[in-house]
């Protein structure tokens, strides 16, 4: 089945890369990717700290950005202990390991992002992942060094069972869009698609297409801000399009949804 890829984002010290490589190989992981490391070439201290995990370091690949490092992957997990305003599924290392096993059993490439030693992942990094991994450590002292974080997640991967529990979303935000707001978004998108002639010769498939669109937008909770943003995008794309006469009967222009 293979194993997930470990991606160290902007690592600062060679010895930390080496210690992470040691932790990886302890648990059977051997594909390491480095995003914009401070040192362009692995130092002797990296190999010394790897304690013999040379094969991990020898084939480690360097990328200029997170986007480049994950371009060939299907599922990406981001490790962070701090709350983010991004609404994403949050899993413990154990549950994440079970999910990763299911992903890989389905033939998907999986990567795990670990942030810089000093700051951890920032929002621009985290937004590229589908799931956040957060360990339920002591809230008064939850910091881990880079190698510890790698070992924690890698060990859970090693010990994971195949029965993954249901995925829970982080619902700390109180402004999740209600059904009425979602319906408004659906109808707005569908009306603009009709006005643009999207359905055209596919009119007989329109119910199925509409169901697919609605279903794809409900795979995770949308915030009210998400709905406003999407409606603003739809409105901007349709602005100035000379197709008003083709709008469906009863269609009304939506209110301004761009903050």
Describe the model:
The chain is an alpha/beta fold. It has 2 domains: 5-159, Alpha/beta knot (3-Layer(aba) Sandwich), CATH 3.40.1280.10; 179-246. Helix content is 40%, strand content 10%. Strands 3-2-1-6-4-7-5 form a 7-stranded parallel sheet. Helix 5 crosses helix 7 (146-159). The protein is elongated, with a radius of gyration of 23 Å.
Question: What share of the residues lie within helices?
Answer: 25-40%
Mean pLDDT: 84
* CATH fold name of the largest domain: Alpha/beta knot
Q: Largest sheet, described in full? A: 7 strands, parallel
> Ranges with pLDDT <50 over ≥5 residues?
none
CATH class of the largest domain: Alpha Beta
CATH architecture of the largest domain: 3-Layer(aba) Sandwich
Strand order of the largest sheet: 3-2-1-6-4-7-5
Question: So how many helices?
Answer: 10
CATH superfamily of the largest domain: SPOUT methyltransferase, trefoil knot domain
Radius of gyration: 23 Å
Q: SSE order, as H and E?
A: EHEHHEHEEHEHEHHHH
Number of strands: 7
Would you summarize the structure shown here?
The chain has 259 residues and is of the alpha/beta class. It contains ten helices and seven strands.
Blueprint (SSEs and pairs):
Elements: E1 5-9, H1 14-26, E2 32-35, H2 44-50, H3 54-58, E3 61-63, H4 66-69, E4 75-79, E5 90-91, H5 93-105, E6 110-114, H6 123-126, E7 131-133, H7 146-159, H8 179-195, H9 206-216, H10 224-238
Index terms:
259 residues, alpha/beta, Alpha/beta knot, 2 domains, 7-stranded parallel sheet, elongated
